[in-house]
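HUMAN: Would you supply a protein with fold tokens?

ASSISTANT:
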Amino acid sequence: MDKDAHIRKFDKQAKKYEKLQKKDPTARFRKRIIPDADGKTLEVAIGTGLNLPYYRNVTELTGIDFSSEMLNAASKITHSYPFEINLEQADVETIHFEKNSFDTIVSSLSFCSYENPVQILNRFQRWSKPDGKVLMLEHGKSTNRMLRGIQRGIDPLAYKMIGCHQQRDIIGFVDESQLEVLKVERALAGLIYFIWARPQK
């Protein structure tokens, strides 16, 4: 999909995600991993800021997203949090950060849409401090055979309509990357992935 068309799809969904700031059905999943972030943190595809309530030990947060509408929604709530938050409209596939910049890198429900997910994970490797961490809350291929069949069937339409693949092998991407996996948990018949990783030593 053309990148500009992809961005427009997410711009159009911003109002829907902004409403989730009041009642987010994914909150219980975010609570399971986002509080583990600490120090100087990068959140990629920050969207409307649904992770912000669950940061506990972050000292400074950089949030990037390629959707200006998503960032506009996030900017309305950043004043509510006690740590510095810097929002930037940028594409994680092309933005530049210095090597060893962040204590924590967070990605939530964004690897469904990237064209080159392994390359992005390798960017995380470069941007992480040597003792840093990468936290991923993602959705992808289920462990249930029937659900995998449904995911496979709806994948082309979902990507066309909302820019989101339904059956990605998230663990496979991480294993193929330069990151080292520390822990993996799954939920909802394996649809939801919790991954704690770090840069390879």
